[in-house]
Amino acid sequence: YREDLKVWLGNQSQISVGVYEMKKSLTSTVSGLIQDTYGKEMTKKKIKNEALEDIQQALKTIQKRSQGLFHFVDAYRNLALIPKPNFQIFPIKELFDRVRKLMQSNINENSIRFTASVDPETLELTADPELTEQVLINLMLNAFQAVEGRKNSKIELNGLMDGRGRVIIQVVDNGPGIPRENLEKIFIPFFSTKEEGSGIGLSLSRQIIRLHNGSIGVHSEPNVQTIFTLRF
Questions:
Q1: Rounded to an integer, what distance in angstroms lies between the CA atom of residue 93 and that of residue 124?
Q2: What's the CA gap between 30 and 25, in Å, rounded?
Q3: pLDDT tens digit string along 190-210?
Q4: Which residues pair with 167 in a beta bridge?
Q5: Is residue 155 within 8 Å of residue 147, measured between CB atoms?
Q6: Rounded Cα distance, 109 and 89, in Å
């Protein structure tokens, strides 16, 4: 997995061009097929209702499949084109405040008890603020999905230092947890247990943290809590 991803990331320009060409090709092919099918069938004076229904169903299938392919292409591009970190020193409290504001509507809509703590309050982090924010957003979105529909749902953001003086950020939720057999798989590109999931968020997050010479890990207790830990 690591070697494969290294190859992907080492060919960013080729991937970017390939993604563009793939999307252009998909758009042209799907649009042409739809127009061609409708054009031929609708110009016929006699067309059976059953045939028309078959055509409409086929077009819906084409549309759904093309949307799935577009989604895959965008996910592939996001994974391949991670920018180099622009390292800055900033307070973790400010980072948490920005993430809270961005996620506030999700928190309110789902009646989630959200807490953010930093110890000490003045704790600072040397990292790319935008990339780190993106990682936290990815983890928060996963947490929202995990606690969806659960009573007394809770999500925490914690900032602290470990015994070696390294900065740690944790995202904690009290969802159903992650099955043990999936704990390592969740970081593999395009692996997802969600029907609508792209399987890109956690893989992207891991690559961003690695670019910071850090690590990301997960500990999950079924029906108790799941903790994603970032070490910088």
A1: 8
A2: 8
A3: 677 665 555 678 988 999 999
A4: 161
A5: yes
A6: 33
Q: Is the peptide bond before 91 cis (omega within 30 degrees of 0)?
A: no
Neighbours of 51 (CB within 10 A): 12
What would you report as the CA-atom Rg of the chain, rounded to the nearest whole angstrom? 22
What fold is seen in the domain 88-231?
A: Heat Shock Protein 90 (3.30.565)
d(CA 171, CA 96): 11
Terminal alpha carbon distance of the chain? 22
CA distance 130 to 122: 19
Which residues are CB-contacts of 144 (< 8 A; sequence separation ≥ 6)?
103, 106, 110, 112, 155
The DSSP 8-state label assigned to residue 222 in this structure reads T
Residue 184's identity, in one-letter code, is E
How high is the mean pLDDT of the chain?
79
**Sequence-distant (≥ 6) Cβ neighbours of residue 110 within 8 angstroms:** 144, 147, 148, 153
Please, which residues bridge with residue 159 across strands? 118, 169
Distance CA 151, CA 85 (A): 39
- pTM for the model stands at 0.67
Could you report the per-residue pLDDT of 47-83, keeping only the tens digit for each? Answer: 566 666 666 666 665 665 555 555 545 555 555 678 8
Domain definitions of the chain by residue range:
1-80, 88-231
Pairing outcome for strands 88-91 and 215-221: unpaired
- Count how many residues are written for the chain: 232
